[in-house]
Amino acid sequence: MSLDTHVSVTANVNNSGIARAGFKLAGHVSYKALWPERMRLFDRLADVITGGFPADSPEGIFATRQFGQSPHPQQIAILRGTRKPTQRYVFSAVTATDNFLYQIQVRGEGVTNTTASYTAGGGTSFAKIHSALLTSLNAVVGRNYLVTFTALVVADFVYTATNADDTLHKVAHGLLTGDGPLRTTTTTTLPSGLLVGTDYWAIRLTADTFQVADSLAHALAGTAVALADDGTGVQTMSDTASTVSPTAQLTATGTAAGNWFNLEIGTVGDPATRAVLAITQNHANPGLALDLTEIQQANSSWYELDTAFNSKDCVLDAAAWVEGNGKLYFVDVCDSASETAAVSGGDALDALAALNYTRTIGAFHSAPADGLSAAWEGRLVPLNPGSWDAAYKTLAGVRAMTFTPTQIANLDAKRASYYKSVGGRSITWEGKVGSAVYGFADVVSSLDFIIDDIQKRCFGIFVALNKVSFTDEDIALFRGAIDSSIDLGKSDAYKIVAPGTPGDPDDPEPTVFIPQVKQIDPGTRALRKIPDGQVNFRLQGSVHSLDVNLTVTF
Fold first, then answer.
1. Which residues are CB-contacts of 135 (< 8 A; sequence separation ≥ 6)?
2. In this structure, are residues 430 and 416 in contact, taking their beta carbons and an 8 Å threshold?
3. CA 129 to chain CA centroid, nearest Å
4. pLDDT one-digit tens code per residue, 308-322
């Protein structure tokens, strides 16, 4: 049974959250844990590695980032999930630029760290770029995924042939270079050079004309099948069960549920290399909130949440659960639309901001394997609630990103966070939550702590005394307990409650009101309830910027 049954504390904020214990413990949802319990604690990185979680696994990265910070947590929690997602990325070239290096960094559990790349030559195309990247990505040693072209359905159509230039004709055929395999049939005789039951790939010439090649490579090179005559009868072109389009986006799918891998487009330090490609994690949510509910029921002593399979569906499911269960969620996504698209673009961070949540800090980082969220949590978790601000933190093991002004504006408009380099120093920015009323993660954590502390101190009075009498003397004990919580919140160890200035309405001193017996309705006293307690204070808050006007005279 919750403490709310006995001591109900509700926070009403004015531009300035609820909680449970475990403020100094972050939990990572794992789909590799084989032990029976739903949560296991680890005191050292070495114990995580020897416990069956390699350094290149999501759990290993979480532990490395958590224990790698200074200060770092005393313990971390691995939470056992049972509903494994099948990870999936979709990605594509945004521009086809000659003499440009297209690259995707690959990391993952058991996967050899590799840069899959393609240097575009003259006359490059989306199909050429995608075909080269597919080949390179599928050649990565130890890969636990498969990259495929987008499936294509082509309605059967009738064409005519002109052998003089090896061209096939169909008004608005809709084919793009590389589409295939396609097969052709006839009512009498095929154009000489084409065979029934043979795979061909399209070479687009115009909207109404095309050629065919005997392989994808030949299609991309423009090497067409030679036609010796035009054939006779009705010639029909058909797709097959395996017809795909190299021009459309590519899909990388884990070869088994629970496989985790990292695809990072371009480089973190060069937005131009990221801008030529687009990537999104779009795998389905297998039931993350259900896993979290079961974990919470088994053990609720963790406070901050970390996840690794961060598609939009998974992130939104976890964020909704966190909102209703008094936790704090740091999550980073790699979807390129987060930095390239304006508000209402529909990406994960945009959706989070629209939901106005108070407990999720959504961040962007193009490299999931850097573990931005895990490192950020690890840097803050050791500190007392209220004593930290999520901004201006340097994180061990995470590469700072470089952004264009437009990308920064897009992220800021979505209340999204990121890790950037400023003045030669790498810092986190800015730790906002979706709700503009609550504003920042430290506000939520601070209020969680104060509420939790007041509840426990007041509940302790019920437990310690044989009877709490309905007298002013005993009621005063609750006032004293709350005063103690406020004093703790004012202390340098927490810095949550502003001490205030006597007589200043803009900087009020904290006040605590618990009604006396005579102020309580007899019917309410019969219910053994003290109503209408009031606690008012101003949060100390935090400073993120400074304006200075410099006046110089000669």
1. none
2. no
3. 27
4. 999 999 999 999 999
